[in-house]
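This part of the workshop introduces the protein records we will be handling. Getting from the letters to the tokens is the skill we practise here. An example says more than a description, so a record of this kind follows:
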Amino acid sequence: MRDQVIHVRLDREVLGFIDMLVKLGVFSSRSEALRELIKAGMKEFELVNNVVKAVEKLFELETREGDIPIKLNGASKQLLEERKNQS
């Protein structure tokens, strides 16, 4: 896949931090710093991505089976009932 160029607006604090990392030699350029920091941020949100995929799978099962595939109690059950009532 070919790299894409994007334009991003950063406030002074963020840019100052990036420039400090470059000046200290942690990264060789602003581009490298931003690229690596974005990758690190993506790893932090990997769990969110997994949860979204799991919820989508449950919705697919619900549609296919015509019922909620997993029976839950307590607050989870209440949330699902409220969702059902909104439909």
The mean pLDDT is 86. The two ends are 41 Å apart (CA to CA). Residues 12-43 form one domain.
